[in-house]
Design brief:
This protein has 233 residues and is of the alpha+beta class. The protein has helices at residues 11-18, 94-99, 184-188, 196-210, and strands spanning 5-7, 21-22, 32-35, 40-47, 55-63, 81-83, 101-106, 108-113, 120-125, 131-141, 153-163, 174-176, 214-217. The chain has a single domain, classed as Alpha-Beta Complex (hypothetical protein yedk fold). Helix content is 15%, strand content 33%. The strands form two sheets. Strands 2, 4, 5, 6, 7, 10, 11 and 12 form an eight-stranded mixed β-sheet that branches. It is an enzyme of class 3 (hydrolase).
Length: 233
């Protein structure tokens, strides 16, 4: 699983990296080194947004996916992660697998080692470079809101995970799925009908990147600043 991650870039920088436009209010988002589930996070997606053709854009989403059929925005089940091995079969995720796939930019993420009070966070990242993590998104409409109220629509997202590679398996048995650059376009393209075959292919293609991941212990996560990812001395 991944329950905390780091995104230190501005949305302007992300837009330049991914060749996307920034959709308000994503332009108000601030970089963070301590992002928990249910936070508003920048995601990359492609869809029609008042335009005549598909547009690649950066939007803010709640980091916990809510399927359209849910009666409430908040679920009693954890939906900030989805297992890539079975997401195409799960009621909460299968519609998103088909046509609502996203990229979640990150520089790294945290996992904990130990139990109880002795749990110690580790920062997991690439030695040189950032991560484009495979995600899914969904739009949830608030049934209590007026149909003319644009705020009734809530964009939500989840991060796909797979079995951890040997380089970080001593920290956690699951990890987010990093997308290689040559799969970004296909992954985001909503005209590509996603299925388990696509998920399996993405999981296999992610392995060379995942094998490059390194980690180091950091101090307990308090506050939100760049010092959080510094190695514990």
């Amino acid at each position: 699983m991944c329950g905390r991650y780091v995104q230190p870039k501005s949305v302007g920088d992300l837009a330049r990296i991914f060749g996307a436009v920034v959709q308000a209010p994503a332009d108000l988002w601030e970089p963070s080194w301590n992002i928990p589930p249910s936070s508003s996070i920048p995601i990359l997606l492609e869809s029609v947004a008042g335009e005549a053709e598909f547009q690649r854009r950066i939007a803010l989403a709640q980091w916990s996916l809510t399927p359209p059929w849910s009666k409430t925005l908040t679920s009693r089940f954890a939906t900030f992660n989805a297992r890539i091995e079975s997401a195409s079969e799960k009621p909460a995720f299968k519609a998103s697998v088909k046509s609502k796939r996203a990229i979640i930019p990150a520089s790294g993420y945290y996992e904990w080692v130990g139990e109880g009070a002795s749990r110690r966070p580790h920062y997991i990242h690439l030695p040189d470079g950032d991560l484009a993590l495979a995600g899914l998104y969904s739009w949830w409409r608030d049934p209590a809101a007026d149909k003319d109220d644009d705020a009734r629509w809530h964009l939500t997202a989840t991060m796909l995970t797979s079995d951890a590679v040997h380089t970080i398996a001593d920290v956690h048995d699951r990890e987010p799925v990093p997308l290689p650059r040559d799969l970004w376009d296909e992954w985001l393209d909503p005209t590509v009908a996603g299925d388990q075959e696509l998920l399996d292919r993405v999981a296999a293609a992610s392995l060379p990147i995942a094998r490059e991941l390194v980690h180091h212990e950091v101090a307990p996560l308090r506050g939100d600043d760049p010092a959080l990812i510094e190695p514990l001395s």
